[in-house]
Protein backbone atom coordinates (compact mmCIF):
# COMPACT_ATOMS: atom_id res chain seq x y z
CA UNK A 1 0.00 0.00 0.00
CA UNK A 2 2.94 2.31 0.70
CA UNK A 3 4.03 1.95 -2.93
CA UNK A 4 0.59 3.04 -4.12
CA UNK A 5 0.49 6.21 -2.00
CA UNK A 6 4.01 7.26 -3.02
CA UNK A 7 3.34 6.75 -6.73
CA UNK A 8 -0.05 8.48 -6.44
CA UNK A 9 1.54 11.47 -4.71
CA UNK A 10 4.24 11.73 -7.37
CA UNK A 11 1.65 11.41 -10.13
CA UNK A 12 -0.52 14.17 -8.64
CA UNK A 13 2.50 16.47 -8.46
CA UNK A 14 3.44 15.57 -12.03
CA UNK A 15 -0.08 16.20 -13.32
CA UNK A 16 -0.49 19.54 -11.54
CA UNK A 17 2.95 20.82 -12.50
CA UNK A 18 2.76 19.34 -16.00
CA UNK A 19 -0.41 21.25 -16.90
CA UNK A 20 0.93 24.56 -15.61
CA UNK A 21 4.38 23.85 -17.04
CA UNK A 22 2.97 23.74 -20.57
CA UNK A 23 1.85 27.35 -20.32
CA UNK A 24 5.15 28.40 -18.73
CA UNK A 25 7.15 26.73 -21.53
CA UNK A 26 4.97 28.27 -24.26
CA UNK A 27 5.39 31.71 -22.72
CA UNK A 28 9.17 31.17 -22.38
CA UNK A 29 8.82 31.50 -18.60
CA UNK A 30 10.03 28.07 -17.49
CA UNK A 31 12.65 29.50 -15.13
CA UNK A 32 10.04 31.73 -13.52
CA UNK A 33 8.56 28.49 -12.16
CA UNK A 34 11.95 27.70 -10.66
CA UNK A 35 12.12 31.19 -9.17
CA UNK A 36 8.64 30.91 -7.63
CA UNK A 37 9.38 27.47 -6.16
CA UNK A 38 12.28 28.96 -4.21
CA UNK A 39 11.03 32.45 -3.46
CA UNK A 40 7.82 31.30 -1.75
CA UNK A 41 9.95 30.16 1.19
CA UNK A 42 9.65 33.48 3.09
CA UNK A 43 5.87 33.38 2.66
CA UNK A 44 5.74 29.86 4.12
CA UNK A 45 7.98 30.85 7.02
CA UNK A 46 5.94 33.97 7.82
CA UNK A 47 2.71 31.96 7.63
CA UNK A 48 4.14 29.44 10.09
CA UNK A 49 5.15 32.21 12.47
CA UNK A 50 1.70 33.84 12.30
CA UNK A 51 -0.51 30.75 12.25
CA UNK A 52 1.72 28.36 14.19
CA UNK A 53 0.55 25.41 12.08
CA UNK A 54 1.56 23.66 8.87
CA UNK A 55 -2.07 22.83 8.17
CA UNK A 56 -3.30 26.39 8.02
CA UNK A 57 -4.67 27.90 4.82
CA UNK A 58 -2.51 30.85 5.81
CA UNK A 59 0.44 28.87 4.46
CA UNK A 60 -1.10 28.66 0.99
CA UNK A 61 -2.04 32.33 1.03
CA UNK A 62 1.44 33.36 2.17
CA UNK A 63 3.10 31.31 -0.55
CA UNK A 64 0.72 32.59 -3.24
CA UNK A 65 1.36 36.18 -2.15
CA UNK A 66 5.14 35.73 -2.33
CA UNK A 67 4.78 34.07 -5.72
CA UNK A 68 2.91 37.07 -7.08
CA UNK A 69 5.42 39.44 -5.49
CA UNK A 70 8.21 37.46 -7.19
CA UNK A 71 6.59 37.83 -10.60
CA UNK A 72 5.91 41.53 -10.01
CA UNK A 73 9.52 42.19 -9.03
CA UNK A 74 10.86 40.24 -12.02
CA UNK A 75 8.57 42.15 -14.39
CA UNK A 76 9.58 45.46 -12.81
CA UNK A 77 13.30 44.74 -13.22
CA UNK A 78 12.78 43.60 -16.81
CA UNK A 79 10.82 46.74 -17.67
CA UNK A 80 13.70 48.83 -16.34
CA UNK A 81 16.02 47.29 -18.92
CA UNK A 82 17.59 44.44 -16.97
CA UNK A 83 17.91 41.12 -18.81
CA UNK A 84 15.33 38.41 -18.08
CA UNK A 85 17.76 35.84 -16.66
CA UNK A 86 19.43 38.43 -14.44
CA UNK A 87 16.06 39.63 -13.12
CA UNK A 88 15.00 36.08 -12.25
CA UNK A 89 18.33 35.29 -10.58
CA UNK A 90 18.34 38.45 -8.47
CA UNK A 91 14.76 38.15 -7.24
CA UNK A 92 14.58 34.46 -6.42
CA UNK A 93 18.01 34.24 -4.73
CA UNK A 94 17.28 37.32 -2.61
CA UNK A 95 13.84 36.10 -1.52
CA UNK A 96 15.07 32.55 -0.95
CA UNK A 97 17.89 33.89 1.23
CA UNK A 98 15.37 35.88 3.28
CA UNK A 99 13.38 32.69 3.79
CA UNK A 100 16.50 30.83 4.93
CA UNK A 101 17.23 33.59 7.45
CA UNK A 102 13.66 33.53 8.78
CA UNK A 103 13.72 29.76 9.24
CA UNK A 104 17.19 29.60 10.79
CA UNK A 105 16.44 32.58 13.08
CA UNK A 106 13.13 31.14 14.30
CA UNK A 107 13.90 27.42 14.04
CA UNK A 108 12.74 26.85 17.62
CA UNK A 109 9.29 28.26 16.82
CA UNK A 110 8.45 26.70 13.46
CA UNK A 111 8.28 23.05 12.50
CA UNK A 112 10.01 23.42 9.15
CA UNK A 113 13.34 22.07 7.98
CA UNK A 114 15.35 23.39 5.03
CA UNK A 115 16.26 19.89 3.87
CA UNK A 116 12.55 19.06 3.84
CA UNK A 117 11.82 22.09 1.71
CA UNK A 118 14.60 21.45 -0.79
CA UNK A 119 14.51 17.68 -1.11
CA UNK A 120 11.27 16.58 0.58
CA UNK A 121 10.67 12.99 1.64
CA UNK A 122 7.98 11.44 -0.46
CA UNK A 123 8.68 8.04 1.11
CA UNK A 124 6.94 9.16 4.30
CA UNK A 125 3.71 10.55 2.83
CA UNK A 126 1.65 7.55 3.98
CA UNK A 127 2.42 8.26 7.64
CA UNK A 128 0.98 11.79 7.71
CA UNK A 129 -2.72 11.02 7.40
CA UNK A 130 -5.87 13.10 7.60
CA UNK A 131 -8.26 11.88 10.29
CA UNK A 132 -11.89 13.06 9.97
CA UNK A 133 -14.52 12.12 12.55
CA UNK A 134 -12.31 9.31 13.70
CA UNK A 135 -11.82 7.86 10.20
CA UNK A 136 -8.42 7.63 8.54
CA UNK A 137 -8.96 9.32 5.17
CA UNK A 138 -5.46 8.59 3.83
CA UNK A 139 -2.33 10.74 3.40
CA UNK A 140 -2.78 14.46 3.87
CA UNK A 141 -0.47 15.12 0.90
CA UNK A 142 -2.77 13.20 -1.45
CA UNK A 143 -5.80 15.26 -0.41
CA UNK A 144 -3.82 18.51 -0.62
CA UNK A 145 -2.37 17.72 -4.03
CA UNK A 146 -5.64 16.28 -5.31
CA UNK A 147 -7.48 19.46 -4.33
CA UNK A 148 -4.79 21.58 -5.96
CA UNK A 149 -4.98 19.55 -9.18
CA UNK A 150 -8.77 19.92 -9.21
CA UNK A 151 -8.44 23.69 -8.75
CA UNK A 152 -5.86 23.95 -11.54
CA UNK A 153 -7.91 21.84 -13.97
CA UNK A 154 -11.06 23.84 -13.18
CA UNK A 155 -9.26 27.12 -13.85
CA UNK A 156 -7.76 25.86 -17.11
CA UNK A 157 -11.07 24.45 -18.36
CA UNK A 158 -12.98 27.61 -17.51
CA UNK A 159 -10.46 29.95 -19.16
CA UNK A 160 -8.80 27.63 -21.68
CA UNK A 161 -9.25 29.97 -24.65
CA UNK A 162 -7.91 32.94 -22.71
CA UNK A 163 -4.85 31.08 -21.41
CA UNK A 164 -4.20 29.65 -24.88
CA UNK A 165 -4.37 33.00 -26.65
CA UNK A 166 -2.27 34.71 -23.99
CA UNK A 167 0.37 31.99 -24.37
CA UNK A 168 0.60 32.10 -28.18
CA UNK A 169 -0.16 35.74 -29.00
CA UNK A 170 -0.45 38.20 -26.07
CA UNK A 171 -0.81 41.15 -28.46
CA UNK A 172 -3.83 39.60 -30.16
CA UNK A 173 -5.28 38.65 -26.77
CA UNK A 174 -5.03 42.26 -25.63
CA UNK A 175 -6.53 43.46 -28.92
CA UNK A 176 -9.66 41.32 -28.47
CA UNK A 177 -10.15 42.58 -24.91
CA UNK A 178 -8.58 39.80 -22.82
CA UNK A 179 -6.89 41.23 -19.68
CA UNK A 180 -3.45 39.73 -20.38
CA UNK A 181 -1.85 41.00 -17.18
CA UNK A 182 -4.67 39.57 -15.06
CA UNK A 183 -4.33 36.10 -16.60
CA UNK A 184 -0.55 36.34 -16.28
CA UNK A 185 -0.79 36.85 -12.52
CA UNK A 186 -3.59 34.29 -12.29
CA UNK A 187 -1.26 31.69 -13.83
CA UNK A 188 1.56 32.67 -11.50
CA UNK A 189 -0.79 32.37 -8.52
CA UNK A 190 -1.69 28.82 -9.58
CA UNK A 191 2.00 27.99 -9.89
CA UNK A 192 2.59 29.35 -6.38
CA UNK A 193 -0.25 27.32 -4.89
CA UNK A 194 0.91 24.16 -6.66
CA UNK A 195 4.44 24.70 -5.43
CA UNK A 196 3.59 25.10 -1.77
CA UNK A 197 1.10 22.22 -1.87
CA UNK A 198 3.96 19.99 -3.03
CA UNK A 199 6.75 21.45 -0.91
CA UNK A 200 6.79 19.35 2.23
CA UNK A 201 5.88 16.01 0.65
CA UNK A 202 8.18 16.10 -2.38
CA UNK A 203 10.49 19.12 -2.05
CA UNK A 204 11.41 21.89 -4.47
CA UNK A 205 13.62 19.76 -6.72
CA UNK A 206 10.78 17.48 -7.84
CA UNK A 207 8.43 20.44 -8.24
CA UNK A 208 10.87 22.31 -10.49
CA UNK A 209 11.63 19.15 -12.47
CA UNK A 210 7.96 18.38 -13.07
CA UNK A 211 7.19 22.00 -13.98
CA UNK A 212 9.78 22.11 -16.74
CA UNK A 213 10.86 18.69 -18.06
CA UNK A 214 7.56 16.92 -18.97
CA UNK A 215 6.16 20.09 -20.59
CA UNK A 216 9.39 20.60 -22.56
CA UNK A 217 9.31 17.00 -23.78
CA UNK A 218 5.64 17.34 -24.74
CA UNK A 219 6.46 20.56 -26.61
CA UNK A 220 8.80 18.57 -28.87
CA UNK A 221 6.21 15.88 -29.58
CA UNK A 222 3.23 17.92 -30.78
CA UNK A 223 2.14 21.31 -32.09
CA UNK A 224 -1.35 21.19 -30.52
CA UNK A 225 -1.83 22.57 -27.01
CA UNK A 226 -4.48 20.04 -25.98
CA UNK A 227 -2.23 17.13 -26.99
CA UNK A 228 0.73 18.82 -25.34
CA UNK A 229 -1.16 19.00 -22.05
CA UNK A 230 -2.01 15.29 -22.29
CA UNK A 231 1.57 14.28 -23.16
CA UNK A 232 2.96 16.39 -20.34
CA UNK A 233 0.75 14.70 -17.74
CA UNK A 234 1.47 11.26 -19.23
CA UNK A 235 5.25 11.79 -19.20
CA UNK A 236 5.06 13.06 -15.62
CA UNK A 237 3.02 10.04 -14.50
CA UNK A 238 5.44 7.61 -16.17
CA UNK A 239 8.34 9.46 -14.52
CA UNK A 240 6.69 9.19 -11.10
CA UNK A 241 6.03 5.45 -11.36
CA UNK A 242 9.29 4.57 -13.11
CA UNK A 243 11.35 6.78 -10.83
CA UNK A 244 9.90 5.17 -7.72
CA UNK A 245 10.75 1.62 -8.79
CA UNK A 246 14.24 2.66 -9.91
CA UNK A 247 14.80 4.37 -6.55
CA UNK A 248 13.58 1.25 -4.77
CA UNK A 249 15.90 -0.91 -6.85
CA UNK A 250 18.95 1.35 -6.34
CA UNK A 251 18.03 2.39 -2.77
CA UNK A 252 18.35 6.00 -3.91
CA UNK A 253 16.43 9.28 -3.63
CA UNK A 254 12.88 8.86 -4.87
CA UNK A 255 12.44 12.49 -5.95
CA UNK A 256 15.83 12.45 -7.67
CA UNK A 257 14.99 9.23 -9.49
CA UNK A 258 11.65 10.60 -10.69
CA UNK A 259 13.30 13.69 -12.15
CA UNK A 260 16.03 11.53 -13.70
CA UNK A 261 13.45 9.38 -15.49
CA UNK A 262 11.76 12.56 -16.71
CA UNK A 263 15.13 13.72 -18.02
CA UNK A 264 15.64 10.42 -19.88
CA UNK A 265 12.18 10.74 -21.45
CA UNK A 266 13.00 14.30 -22.52
CA UNK A 267 16.25 13.07 -24.09
CA UNK A 268 14.30 10.44 -26.06
CA UNK A 269 11.84 13.11 -27.24
CA UNK A 270 14.74 15.40 -28.19
CA UNK A 271 16.30 12.65 -30.30
CA UNK A 272 13.25 10.93 -31.82
CA UNK A 273 10.59 13.67 -32.00
CA UNK A 274 8.80 13.37 -35.39
CA UNK A 275 9.08 17.09 -36.14
CA UNK A 276 11.81 18.54 -33.92
CA UNK A 277 14.03 15.55 -33.06
CA UNK A 278 17.67 15.15 -34.03
CA UNK A 279 16.90 12.08 -36.16
CA UNK A 280 14.11 13.88 -38.00
CA UNK A 281 16.23 16.93 -38.70
CA UNK A 282 19.16 14.80 -39.86
CA UNK A 283 16.86 12.88 -42.23
CA UNK A 284 15.45 16.13 -43.65
CA UNK A 285 18.95 17.46 -44.31
CA UNK A 286 19.91 14.24 -46.10
CA UNK A 287 16.78 14.40 -48.26
CA UNK A 288 17.46 18.05 -49.14
CA UNK A 289 21.06 17.25 -50.08
CA UNK A 290 19.90 14.32 -52.20
CA UNK A 291 17.31 16.48 -53.94
CA UNK A 292 19.88 19.22 -54.59
CA UNK A 293 22.30 16.70 -56.07
UniProtKB/TrEMBL annotation:
Protein name per its UniProtKB record: Metal ABC transporter permease
Keywords from the named record: Cell membrane, Membrane, Transmembrane, Transmembrane helix, Transport
Main location group: membrane
Protein family per UniProt: Belongs to the ABC-3 integral membrane protein family.
Lineage: Bacteria, Bacillati, Bacillota, Bacilli, Bacillales
Superkingdom classification of source: Bacteria
Localization terms from the record: Cell membrane
Pfam families recorded: ABC-3
Amino acid sequence: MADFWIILTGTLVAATCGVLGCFLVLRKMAMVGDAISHSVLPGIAIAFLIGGSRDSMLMLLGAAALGLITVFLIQTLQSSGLQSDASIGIVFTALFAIGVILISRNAAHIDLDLDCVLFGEIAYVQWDTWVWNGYDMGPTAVWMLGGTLLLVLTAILLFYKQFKLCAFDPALAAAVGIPVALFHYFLMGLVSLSTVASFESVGAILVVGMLIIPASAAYLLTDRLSIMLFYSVLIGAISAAGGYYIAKWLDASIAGSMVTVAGVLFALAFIFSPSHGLVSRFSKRRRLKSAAA
